[in-house]
Design brief:
This protein has helices spanning 2-7, 18-28, 45-64, 78-81, 85-91, 117-127, 172-193, 239-243, 268-277, 306-317, 332-341, 352-357, 378-403, 411-418, 433-443, and strands at 32-34, 41-43, 68-69, 75-77, 97-101, 104-112, 136-145, 159-169, 199-202, 214-221, 227-237, 248-249, 255-256, 259-266, 294-298, 323-325, 346-350, 359-364, 370-374, 406-408, 425-429, 446-451, 470-475. It is α+β, with helices and mostly antiparallel strands. The strands form five sheets. Strands 3-7-8-14-11-10-9-22-23-21-20 form an eleven-stranded mixed sheet, with helices on both faces. The chain has a five-stranded mixed sheet with strand order 16-15-17-18-19, sandwiched between helices. Strand 18 (359-364) and strand 19 (370-374) form a beta hairpin. The protein is globular, with a radius of gyration of 25 Å. The two termini are 34 Å apart. Mean pLDDT is 93; it is low at 1-9. The structure holds one RNA strand.
RNA sequence: CGAGGUGUAGCUCAGUUUGGUAGAGUGCUUGGUUUGGGACCAAGAUGCCGCAGGUUCGAACCCUGUCACCUCGACCA
């Protein structure tokens, strides 16, 4: 194991310093680099490839549900941003402004979009006239700017890439269903493709999106017990429509306000993947989004037939998988470590001994479990390994989350839990913002979400002792 | 925005206490030998010591300012 120590020399171990482990790993795996603008990051090819795979999967899901992609402008006139009061109040502190064009001062300054609700609303106000124009189901892939004071790779940056869906509907019910439909789309994506167990819920008024009537969220626990908001879906009611004067003639020939939703997932989820599955040897990427799913490493390349066989396997596998053959001059040991660090799910070794037996070696990234796969049944073996790989990624993350899940009945419980390592904290809550603030101020935990299954609850608020209205998941947030 | 820390070769860092003109490991280039868990030999290239002022005969080192990054808070989609 002496050589393993050499590998991790440059990477701090998770147990020693999780935050440092994280930044070491994103740089070492060449996912991103810092740029010249404070808080802005460069997505390097390997990191961007992960995002592209996420895009492909989500885009397909969205289109399958009837959404169309559009591209809104980057700039928003100040007057437009001002229209919805809660919205501007929420975003004003962190918007960047364009004030000049060349040397001339602009008559009205333009903000770089922090999110595009206002642009969509303005557009809808001109396009929606009749109930026959509804619904409109739009999405855009873009980047937005929020001038955050601190930044961390993927988790928080001044500019970040995301998708934002914006829809507009005839009825409240239809819009609410859309909100839930996209909420569930995100949840399924996290659990099925990213192998990340998540908690689904609704944000408290304190934590919900600026301008939304309700915000639904998926929350995931990271290795260090902190909680990452991983995707949100908002129901706007008719608030924005009223602010932007979006009206249409309804089926009864009366003027009516439509109802809106928006929903988004960002490159932040890449940080979530890293902090959910990664280990001290580097990244561990779920196969569905891994830029390289299988790395082929020829052993004793100079022996006759080895490289030829490796290329033959490569050519077959590339039809179905994202596969790479590393025929560089590095030693096998070096390659093993390199691709482990990069999180490649399966390593395929092929050497003289294997060729004799008509097989190759498959090694799983997560537990280094080896299996011998006959070359004439390779595709099937790989499929099986991927299935098992994904199952154990999910199971491992779930076990970890459950082992750090805590229950608080009183404030003393909260105090005790917060003094040691913990993940989600479940407790009853009266619904008053004051109790939320007390926990935030005294113990730095915030409400992550209100359980969706809290209709029939009974009990007392863990903070004030009054009758509880909700079951809430709390935690230290990223 | 508050507290603390770090900026020296592509990367990880030593050198700063006590000022004298640039170092190690790794990586990189070339050639050769190697290859089942980070191989070896030989020859090479690589620096405005974050940036700007100041002190000094002389500054990576001392002083002032500034910028960036990291950590913990505060703030926050």
């Amino acid at each position: 194991m002496g050589k393993q120590e050499k590998l991790v020399k440059d990477i701090t171990s998770m147990e020693e310093d999780f935050a440092k482990w994280y930044t070491d790993i994103v740089k070492k795996a060449q996912l991103m680099d810092y740029s010249n603008v404070r808080g802005c990051m460069i997505l390097e090819p390997y990191g961007f490839a992960i995002w592209e795979n996420i895009q492909k999967i989500l885009d397909k899901k969205f289109k399958g549900l009837g959404h169309e992609n559009v591209a809104m402008p980057l700039l928003i006139p100040e007057s437009l941003l001002q229209k919805e009061k809660d919205h501007i109040e929420g975003f004003a502190p962190e918007v960047a402004w364009v004030t000049h064009a060349g040397s001339e001062k602009l008559q009205e300054r333009l903000c770089i979009r922090p999110t595009s609700e206002t642009l969509f609303c303005e557009y809808f106000s001109r396009k929606v006239h009749s109930w026959r124009d509804l619904p409109k189901l739009y999405n855009q892939w873009c980047s937005v700017v929020r001038w955050e004071k601190t930044s961390r790779p993927f988790l928080r940056s001044v500019e970040f890439h995301w998708q934002e869906g914006h829809t507009i509907h005839e009825t409240q019910e239809e819009a609410q269903n859309e909100t839930m439909r996209m909420f569930n789309t995100y949840a399924d994506f996290c659990e099925n493709e990213l192998c990340m167990p998540i908690i689904k819920g609704r944000k408290t008024d304190k934590e919900k999106f600026a301008g939304a009537e309700s915000t639904y969220t998926i929350e995931a626990m990271m290795h260090d017990g902190k909680i990452l908001q991983s995707g949100t879906s908002h129901y706007f009611g008719d608030g924005f429509c009223k602010a932007f004067d979006i009206t249409y003639q309804d089926r009864d020939n009366k003027p009516s306000y439509p109802y809106e939703t928006s929903w988004g997932m960002s490159t932040r989820i890449i940080g979530g993947i890293i902090m959910t599955h990664g280990d001290n040897n580097g990244l561990v990427l779920p196969p569905d989004i891994a830029p390289i799913q299988i790395i082929i490493i020829p052993i004793s390349m100079n022996k006759p037939g080895v490289l030829e066989k490796a290329k033959e396997i490569y050519n077959i596998l590339k039809e179905k998988y994202r596969v790479k053959l590393d025929e560089s001059n590095q030693t096998p040991g070096w390659k093993f470590s390199e691709y482990e660090m990069k999180g490649v799910p399966i390593r395929l070794e092929i050497g003289p001994k294997d060729i004799e037996k008509g097989q190759c070696v498959l090694v799983r990234r997560d537990n280094r479990e080896k299996s011998f796969a006959p070359l004439d049944n390779l595709d099937n073996e790989i499929k099986q390994v991927f299935i098992k790989f994904k199952e154990s990624l999910y199971e491992k993350a779930l076990n970890q989350r459950n082992s750090l899940m805590r229950e608080a009945k009183t404030k003393d419980d909260f105090r005790k839990i917060c003094s040691e390592k913990h993940g989600f904290i479940r407790s009853m809550w009266c619904g008053k913002e004051k109790c939320e603030e007390i926990l935030k101020e005294e113990l730095s935990v915030s409400s992550r979400c209100i359980s969706l299954l809290d209709d029939k609850i009974s009990g007392k608020c863990a903070v004030c002792g009054e009758d509880a209205k909700h079951l809430v998941y709390w935690g230290k947030a990223y």
